[in-house]
Amino acid sequence: MNDTIYQRIESSAHFRELVSKRQRFAALLSLIMLVIYVGFILLIAFAPAWLGTPLHDGTSVTRGIPIGIGVIVISFLLTGVYVWRANGEFDRLNNEVLREVGVK
To answer: What pTM does this model have?
Structure first.
């Protein structure tokens, strides 16, 4: 019985749409995060003096600190964006697939 349900799900247009949209979106967010992280690592490797420059006179806070914190904050924001879309559009498509194949 499970094999027939799996086959109906795999042949569903909504399922193919869900998989396609989710893969493209995850790849886009991963690419964005990869570019940001690799860019930060390249800055560390090739411009350590620039990153080590204080933000202004009399402070020990350098340019690298807010940039590093920014990398972390952006990763949390991108995770939030994925969760927001997953709980909205992806869950809606998932429920359509389940209704279409008669599981729910």
So the answer is: 0.83
